[in-house]
């Protein structure tokens, strides 16, 4: 049986982890502060577009807060009770995130329908001022989050998607404010809020889908199980590969287990060394457990 853990990767992981935490904390403070401003502004100007953007900012603040909590929980050491520690909490946070986004978008759709039939008076200049400040805040937060690991880490990506949707929402609110100021089109306000809601729904659904895939022990998208199985079977002395399982503990921590039936004269140490090197080089597999069995061994398939 072989166990493999890449310590060099661990060092890089810690560096990215700290960068992620720092960017999330600064972003959380900025978003939470401006959300309060936007709620007050939305009520004072009677703008659903601003209130829907504030709703998105609330989900941003919750997203960033949950992501931050997920990183703190993820740092807790593994125990005999939780052998992988609390790393999975990150995915639960992303799942709640996605759920919140979908709920908020449906609520905005519902509110906007009434406004289409009876567009209320909206104070355009006030809406314009708050929307521009919102856009600048969102650009700053998006830039800060981009310094984190938004490509590999699902939690960081979900927080980044929130802010990106918010940024587009601010652009929508600015356009609506211009239409209200210059053309008196109050209907532009519910139109802008529906656009924001659609953006929220799309990003929420994506995050939800990815989180569910990991919670259901789905195969990580960057791992080709057929390619791995073929490589295993091509090793000298390997007769059969069975019970090959690949899953993600969290978004940037994949695990693999496999049983290999080998001939009696097989060089077991070489097989294990070659396999471990291959998995690290090609799939960045953080944690692999390979069990080698003699050709006469009795085994149970646990697929």
UniProtKB/TrEMBL annotation:
Report the transmembrane regions from the record.
24-44, 50-71, 91-110, 122-146, 158-185, 191-208
Q: Which UniProt keywords apply?
A: Ion transport, Membrane, Transmembrane, Transmembrane helix, Transport
| Superkingdom in the source lineage | Bacteria
Question: Cell cycle: is it a keyword of this entry?
Answer: no
- Return the NCBIfam families for the record: CDF (TIGR01297)
Native organism is: Listeria swaminathanii
Gene3D superfamilies, per the entry: Cation efflux protein transmembrane domain
List locations, semicolon-separated: Membrane
- The residues covered by the Cation efflux protein cytoplasmic domain are 220-293
Q: What is this protein called?
A: Cation diffusion facilitator family transporter
Per UniProt, what is one Pfam family of this protein?
ZT_dimer
What the record says about family reads:
Belongs to the cation diffusion facilitator (CDF) transporter (TC 2.A.4) family. SLC30A subfamily.
Its membrane topology is listed as: Multi-pass membrane protein
Entry-linked InterPro entries: Cation_efflux, Cation_efflux_CTD, Cation_efflux_CTD_sf, Cation_efflux_TM, Cation_efflux_TMD_sf, CDF/SLC30A
Traced from the root, the source organism's taxonomic lineage reads: Bacteria, Bacillati, Bacillota, Bacilli, Bacillales
Start and end residues of each Cation efflux protein transmembrane domain: 24-216
